[in-house]
Design brief:
Elements lengths: L13 E3 L3 E2 L2 H11 L4 H4 L1 H5 L10 H14 L7 E12 L8 E13 L6 E12 L4 E12 L4
Antiparallel strand pairs: 1-4, 2-4, 3-6, 4-5, 5-6
Length: about 150
């Protein structure tokens, strides 16, 4: 089933993604992929001595997972043309191994393309939320989306 076309998005509408439990494997793979082996993420002993008392997940891992969870909604399947950017992304708190997160998605803006009539741009406000309701990350993601053909 195709996702929503630009014309079908409405400013103010909200969605919640499926949830995902963050695992040790997620953190190990992200460290390997990114090269970020900071002890805050990779050393249990180091983590015990921090204000968090244990290892935390990479902030950029949270951002990446938020984008993946957004796409699990299916709203952009076959209609997304390009990911255009991230704005005002805030890392508001940590997430830990074993915690479950989901994303609240709200349509903040939509703009028609002036030069190409077959597309438009939507700006989504995302909040990464832990199971206890704590917001750990938030910000905007902007995506170019196809318009419905006439």
């Amino acid at each position: 089933m195709p996702g929503k076309f630009f014309d079908e998005w409405a400013v103010g509408e909200e969605y919640f993604t499926p949830s995902r439990t963050m695992t040790e494997t997620d953190i190990v793979w992200f460290a390997a992929m990114s090269g970020d082996y900071n002890e805050l993420h990779t050393s249990e002993e180091f983590g015990k001595k921090t204000q968090f008392g244990k290892r935390i997940g990479h902030g950029l891992l949270g951002l990446a997972v938020s984008h993946g969870l957004l796409f699990r909604l299916g709203l952009l399947d076959g209609t997304a043309i390009a990911f255009l950017g991230v704005e005002d992304w805030k890392f508001e708190g940590p997430f830990f191994i074993g915690e479950t997160i989901r994303v609240k998605v709200k349509v903040a803006e939509k703009k028609e393309s002036r030069s190409k009539l077959d597309r438009g741009v939507i700006k989504l406000f995302l909040q990464v939320i832990k199971e206890d309701g704590t917001i750990v990350q938030s910000g905007y993601q902007t995506i170019m989306v196809r318009r419905k053909s006439g």
